[in-house]
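Retro notes (design track)

What went well: tokenization of the new backbones is finally stable.
What didn't: we kept losing track of which sequence belonged to which structure.
Fix going forward: every design gets posted as structure first, then sequence, in one message. First example under the new rule, 231 residues:
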């Protein structure tokens, strides 16, 4: 009886952790993908909007990524040239303060990614001791259920993004930040000039696509393995 309860808890944890892991994994990959910034700057003509040359925009995006991945608590200083003059910092104090909050959010995503992965691995390993029969099949089915759950949730969020991303984006900021530092001026604040709302819509689509592909693979994995093994 105890083993049965433990197994139910184990399966629940695996299935619940898989969506969290896949979303945070793809969020991390997209945030650190140079192509996201390259394509976004070109697509939305950020060079024309900011007056900063394309190569300097890419340099700024690299400094931002380095800032997110830096374990120190130092503030963001982005040094680029504009019209041949080196700027002390591309962003003003309000933007720097907001980026401090963004970094905490990003680092939180990284942390949750590792926690969810640890839960999945712990669930898989514990299955070797809790499940008496068909250990491999039980583990594979749990992962498959997690993949299907992830796929369902991602499709729902994807549809919501297409229907009303602006409202979803607003709710994200209201939920994620305890201050109003994210309310910036698009006519003078480089952070909004470089990263318009459409940029984040594209990033969301990339995250969703990666998650859909991975979760679909996990979802059909039991059927594929059934061809070779009885699971």
């Amino acid at each position: 009886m105890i083993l049965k309860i433990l197994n139910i808890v184990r399966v629940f944890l695996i299935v619940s952790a898989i969506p969290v892991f896949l979303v945070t994994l793809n969020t991390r990959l997209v945030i650190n993908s140079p192509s996201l910034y390259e394509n976004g700057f070109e697509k939305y003509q950020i060079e024309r909007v900011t007056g900063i040359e394309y190569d300097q925009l890419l340099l700024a995006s690299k400094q931002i990524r380095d800032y997110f991945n830096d374990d120190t608590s130092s503030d963001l200083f982005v040094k680029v040239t504009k019209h041949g003059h080196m700027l002390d910092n591309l962003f003003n104090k309000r933007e720097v303060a907001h980026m401090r909050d963004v970094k905490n959010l990003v680092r939180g995503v990284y942390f949750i990614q590792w926690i969810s992965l640890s839960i999945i691995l712990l669930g898989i390993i514990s299955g070797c001791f809790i499940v008496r029969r068909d250990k491999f099949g039980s583990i594979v089915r749990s992962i498959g259920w997690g993949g299907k759950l992830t796929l369902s949730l991602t499709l729902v969020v994807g549809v919501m993004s297409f229907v009303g991303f602006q409202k979803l984006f607003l709710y994200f900021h209201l939920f994620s930040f305890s201050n109003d530092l994210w309310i910036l001026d698009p006519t003078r604040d480089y952070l909004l000039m470089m990263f318009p709302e459409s940029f984040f819509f594209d990033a969301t689509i990339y995250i969703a696509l990666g998650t859909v592909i991975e979760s679909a693979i996990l979802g059909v994995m039991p059927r594929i393995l059934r061809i070779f093994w009885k699971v």
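Added context from the reviewer: The first helix runs from residue 2 to 31.
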